[in-house]
Amino acid sequence: MKIACLLGSPRRHGNSSTVAEHFCNTAVGFGAEVRTFALNELKYRGCQACMACKTKLDRCILDDDLSEVLGAVSESDIVVLASPVYFGEVSSQMKAFIDRTFSFLVPDYITNPKKSRVEPGKTLIFVLAQGNPDEKAFSNIFPKYDFFFKLSGFESRLVHACGVREAGEVKGRKELLDLAEKTAKQVFNKM
Questions:
Q1: I need a surface site. Which of 7, 42, 68, 109 has the fewest CB within 10 A?
Q2: CA contacts within 13 A on the Cβ side of 178
Q3: How far is residue 180's CA from residue 185's CA, in Å, rounded to a whole number?
Q4: String of b and e for 127-140 (b: at least 16 CB within 10 Å)?
């Protein structure tokens, strides 16, 4: 079982990263192989809207650090996307990655029943960490991205850590770490 874990926080050991790493450590206990990418440490550009992935190539034309990440995501059984919530949205690092997944869609994805170049049946774990303790605050983030990742054949699950603002604060919230562990167990029991 291969896992690609993408950390979208500029803080390497921030709350979203800590929850994602807890999920991955639990998965390793089930025999998973994990590759982790800290997006903030990579050099890459967002989608250029050049449409080369629809007209010339079967992948993104940009050749940068995100090329390896996109390949790892495509080859993985489980993908973990972890991001803090900044101004009601995922981090800019994560958003740039998500935009580049447009290259996963086939040229005629609007009418083609097989919309993605990525093999279906992958699981996406979407980890969001936010300072606001209200679970309903920013509740539009996950459904929006879930819609797009379903196009690429992912079955998505949300691990939502609310009320964690300071770096590392989630370590003192056992229920949130337990949620990450429980989610990993559920995913692996299903497979």
A1: 68
A2: 4
A3: 9
A4: bbbbeeeeeeebee
- Match domain 2-190 to its CATH number in 1.10.1790.10, 3.40.190.10, 3.40.50.360, 3.40.50.1010: 3.40.50.360
**Residue 84 backbone phi and psi in degrees, to 5:** -75, 160
CA gap 18, 180 in Å, rounded? 10
Name the nearest CA neighbour of 96 among 148, 47, 147.
47
**pLDDT tens digits for 137-180?**
999 999 999 999 999 999 999 999 999 999 999 999 999 999 99
Alpha-carbon distances of 191 from 21, 51, 101, 152, 169, rounded to whole Å: 20, 35, 25, 19, 32
Q: What is the pTM for the complete model shown?
A: 0.96
Tens-place pLDDT, residues 45-94 = 999 999 999 999 999 999 999 999 999 999 999 999 999 999 999 999 99
Q: Nearest CA to 39 among 78, 80, 10?
A: 10
